[in-house]
Structure of tRNA(Ile)-lysidine synthase:
Amino acid sequence: MQNERPRLSPVIADVRRAVRSALTEGEFVLVALSGGPDSLALAAAVAFEASRVGARAGAVIVDHGLQAGSADAAARARDQAEALGLDPVRVKTVTVGVDGGPEAAARTARYRALSEAAKELGATAVLLGHTLDDQAETVLLGLARGSGAASLQGMAAETGIYRRPLLGIRRQQTVQFCDDSALTPWHDPQNDHPAFTRVRVRTTVLPMLEAELGPGISEALARTAEQLREDAAALDHFAEEIAEDLAEHSEAGISLPAEALAANPAALRQRLIRLAVESEFHVSLSRSQTLEVARLVTDWHGQGAIDLPGVRVERHAGLLRFSARD
């Protein structure tokens, strides 16, 4: 049996406090457990806190099957979860595809398995072990790829059924948590393999930035993500309110007045365009597609309709008309 009552070190207290705020009385949650320090610390904290807030907690382990011994690592994580008192505990073995590269394909397979496990077991939420360091890496990767404010917002504390209670906890804290709790985490060799972009960011880029610019880079990146998320939420709220006043629905689709779009700042104008397309046709526009549509407002000289995947946009009689393409 694992030591169920480790000495209450400051790190254990910090992680438990972070987890406590993510649990609600009467709910049933699953911990996504790999056996690594982050998820193992999360699992131990959830096992301790769940009963104290009147919640139930189990665990799900995803075996990606990408390296020798992965089944043994999954079985060990299962045993640790059961020893901590989590129940039920499930191991899901997945087949990883190739779309988007190895990291993206593994992530897709993992989230699919977690979602399936939540449905099968009736869980209200799945708790993930992403830390402040993971958030900093995500923001830096988004910045390097030039993928805009949405990417720079990093990971949300809650997205659908997924919760990330450790986004304010550093990775070294989860390692110390395991030490203080007499837990032995599994160290995935792929987490140190330079073939993966995120590993290079973790082991080379961020340490270099810390060395050249001073300490606190990871915290600064995480703060940036939080501030951008707040700003984006406000702009999205304003866009939804404006859309309610401006949008004209018809059998053919939806229309927005070009003059009113032109009067709004670019950030709101482009949100209104994306919102109209997504709400009416369930299509997500890229930035380049959104800007192409926006030119019907900001650079209008009589050009014809724009055909986008599933949607046609044209300017007529002062309106931007969005209709479904055959």
User: Anything to note?
Assistant: The mean pLDDT is 91. The chain has twelve helices and eleven strands. The longest strand covers residues 56-63. The radius of gyration is 23 Å.
